[in-house]
Amino acid sequence: MSVQPIITILEKLEKMHKSLLEHAYRKTELVKNNDMDELDQMLKIEQSHVAAIEQLEAQRQQNVMEYFQEKGIEMSSVPTIAELLEAVEDEEERQKLADVRNRLLKLVENLKIQNDLNQQLIFNSLQLVNITLNMLRPQPEEINYSEKTVRGGNAPRHSLFDSQA
């Protein structure tokens, strides 16, 4: 069995992650411009991308397991691409597999960085909204008793320290 079907799936995963990264960049601009309607549409598109990525990942895992079974290699759990690289005998296939793996890893790292930035922008926006709302809301009166209510109005204050002595 060749690893070409696995490489093809990884290339599809790469395309999906590139698309997600482009959407993440676009989402940053939408958050900056406060375009909530477009942001809502973007989130729906991202959800469909994530579902497609999950399906491709399941196919990749299945193909890698089949490859190992055909080669008679025992596996402890779901094998990784790194383990597959060690098992591939054809140098050209190994190089193609390593290249697509490295590109995919770089994309995933960039996507993580961009999503962290977007999350921070959204968090800052929410903080700004909360600060604005707190400024607009009337502040509740103090529930604790003040000195005037305890002493009954304008009663003279008696100090424990006699300043005339």
Task: Describe, in plain words, how this protein is organized in 3D.
This protein has a single domain, classed as Methane Monooxygenase Hydroxylase, Chain G, domain 1 (Up-down Bundle). It has five helices and no strands. The chain has helices at 4-33, 36-71, 81-87, 91-136, 147-151. The longest helix is centred in the C-terminal third of the chain and has 46 residues, at 91-136. It is elongated and about 95 Å long. Residues 144-165 are annotated as: Disordered. This is Flagellar protein FlgN.
In brief:
Keywords: Bacterial flagellum biogenesis, Cell projection, Cilium, Flagellum. With 165 residues, the chain is mainly α.
The mean pLDDT is: 86
Q: How does the helix and strand content classify structurally? A: mainly alpha
Q: What fraction of the residues are assigned to beta strands by DSSP?
A: under 5%
Main CATH class? Mainly Alpha
Please work out how many helical segments DSSP would assign. Answer: 5
CATH topology: Methane Monooxygenase Hydroxylase, Chain G, domain 1
Q: Percent range for helical residues? A: over 70%
Keywords: Bacterial flagellum biogenesis, Cell projection, Cilium, Flagellum
Organism: Ureibacillus suwonensis
Protein name: Flagellar protein FlgN
Region (Disordered): 144-165
